[in-house]
Fold this sequence. Notes:
The protein is an alpha/beta fold. It has helices spanning 13-31, 44-50, 56-63, 87-97, 121-124, 160-176, 191-204, 217-226, 238-251, 289-301, 306-321, 339-352, and strands at 2-9, 35-39, 67-72, 102-108, 128-134, 146-147, 152-153, 180-185, 211-216, 233-236, 261-263, 268-270. Bound molecules: 3-isopropylmalic acid and manganese (II) ion.
Amino acid sequence: MFKIVTIPGDGIGSEVVASAVQVIKALEEKHGLEIEIEEHLFGGASYDVHGEMLTEETLEACKNCDAVLLGAVGGPKWENLPHEKKPEAALLRIRKELGLFANFRPAKVYDALVNASSLKSEILSGTDFMVIRELTGGIYFGQPRGYDEEKGWNTMVYEKYEVERIARLAFETAMKREKRLVSIDKANVLECSQFWRNIVHEVHKDFPEVELSDMYVDNAAMQVVRDPKQFDVIVTKNLFGDILSDISGMITGSLGMLPSASIGSKHALYEPIHGSAPDIAGRNKANPIATIASVAMMFEHSFSMQHIADDIYTAIEKTLESGLRTADIANPGDSVASTEEITDAITASLEVS
Ligand code: IPM
Ligand code: MN
């Protein structure tokens, strides 16, 4: 028996999480699983009721389950709150409190979608790499931080144990894939990055089979669009990973396709990479695939049920091959499917396979 806490959040979050729950229910039935789902408030939806984005109650629930599934947070309604009350701050807090130090963001091109990207299909086809972003350290959390009338400041700092544990996880991931790891930093300018590089090379001694190379972040941004197939696993700091994972995501066609897993030693949280998309919220237009694929990552990482994860990926692929597309991945002239239509097709495909 597994317990999943869902936090739909804001905007399209509730629609895509509803899609994911429909898929989870279908899987439960098909594979004879017992899954308990408990929903909690987070983000603007929580602020409007409780005056805070993240309540102790939601945080406790997230700590007392096997996995958390998050939709999206934020929207124009809450944009003008002070910095520490913004949805982004609540997201950082939940990551820190749950100790989610590793963020996995796969960049995989579905064959059916090679034409949805702005890049040429011959450059893209066959692209399949994993960005591992450090998630609870670096400049996102460093002290001191602040701004006044005259200046603004943040601190980029990494402790040895923080680099060691993310590097270790990255090498372990590479061992399960093609055994190639690229560590991305800015060691030509930043001392903190030279430190990062030194530690990654230390950890490498325990994984001699993995081919390790270093790349500066500016070059990496270029390489990801020039020749994405060169990558197998990327490991990088919090800020660089934030930027690079958006670039990597976009080459695959749409942010609406991309799942993510944030993992710690005790807890795990899964969420689509896209935001709350207030412009299309409540209109049955959102692409639910990123959230459904996040459920696949949950079965893989939290429940160690790779066969069920594969089952979900296959259902997604079949649905795309059948030609169904939400607006974000449709080509001009395609008829556009709704969130519910895509979800029903994926669920139906799971049931027959
Ligand atoms: C992401 C987002 C967040 C981040 C924001 C919303 C705090 O951009 O998950 O990539 O910068 O980490
Ligand atoms: Mn981001």
